Amino acid sequence: MEVVHISAECYPVAKAGGLGDVVGALPKYQQKAGITSKVVMPMYRTPFLYASNWVVDFKANAFMGAWEFEYTIIKEANNKLGFDLYLVDIHGLLDRQKIYGYSDDAERFTAFQIAVVHWMSHWSHKPTAVHCHDYHAGLIPFMMQHCYDYQNLKDVPTLLTIHNAQYQGWMPWAQSMLIPRWDLSKKGLLDWGGSINPLAAAIKCASKVTTVSPSYMKELMHHANGLETLIAAEKNKCVGILNGIDHEVWNPATDSYLTEHFSPKSVTAGKQKNKENICAQFGLDPTKPLFVFIGRLVGEKAADVLPGALHKAIQTYGTKASYMILGSGEPAVETAISNLAHANDHIVKVSLGYNESLSHGLYAAADFLLMPSRVEPCGLNQLYAMRYGTVPMVRSTGGLQDTVVDMGDEGGYGIRFTHASETDIVDSIGRAIEIFDNKKHLLWMRERMMQINHGWEQTVQSYTRVYDSI
Question: Which domains does the chain have, with CATH numbers?
């Protein structure tokens, strides 16, 4: 079996969020299970590019509308990631440092997809399946089936995985000319709400559709940023498969970012030493419970609620706890959080930006991880936290609901709440402070969490069954 993954992100090549983590891990564990797994992504100008060895695999010209462009496919030479990695270079479009955020993103990712399909159409064999991740690869199932130049790919099964349905890649119909010569009678497959919608097109055209957790699959029937009726209509080919995490990367017993390694048997002492290191760096008291938030400071993560919630928590519980926030996002949220930290410098700290090493340190040091997300298709942070003995405090949504059992339920090891509101967050912080003072039960929760297997092996089996079905 040969599977080709097509994605805008792949850790450690280029990552903006959970998509990168998944595409960096799933193919590696598929390889270990005997599946030939390849990843194709844009050739951004990232440190990984310059630190690796590459060979040119293919070079050709293709058309995007009237524009003829040259593209180059390069392959990582040393199998550093445990699978074949291919990068697509298109001068002027993909040769940039950032993944997203450019005014011509529609053209960038359309050209990327054209190059990928054009390249695959020249292969001497056909892959078992083409696995498309999110809207950045959403036009590929349509192009494989309905673009005249790629008819030799028409019978290759395709799978779409929706990591986040909020982002759909909308394009005005004027940009339909960018897609290589296609069957105009199939216009309805591209259209949703009067514009070209790559994510909708992929849902319509892919052989199967998966989401990154069972609960998120159900939620999309009712909250999918305008795609609710489409997903409901296509529900028979949709399935939710819970993401895993890479236990080789996220392992407190071997993590090179940590001050002190630890296992379930040494979790109390190990976490305390990591906590002392973090608190020394940021001027916090290591004897107090440490609450952390790690992620994008955007409304989807309910980060806009954090400043008010933490302010109320400080009013309610005083200096009983410390708080640390790592992330970046909306300027107004960044400013509000920075102002809160400035006004409460002795117990609130903030680090704006993306910092992989600090995130690992915080998972190891923290007592509690706060995730009040409004939308969380799967969530990986809560899985990382549990792996490091950090109690997740999550809103009951998506994958958070699938992976965290509230400590009030039998065998529960986390804290769940209903609303992304200041009140629910403050109440949950109160529950957490109480459990922090109950050292015996806290130790039981930590040991219980750390021994839960959220590895990729079971997820790989689920995807294999989907590939077999198509």
Answer: 2-244+457-469 (3.40.50.2000), 264-450 (3.40.50.2000)
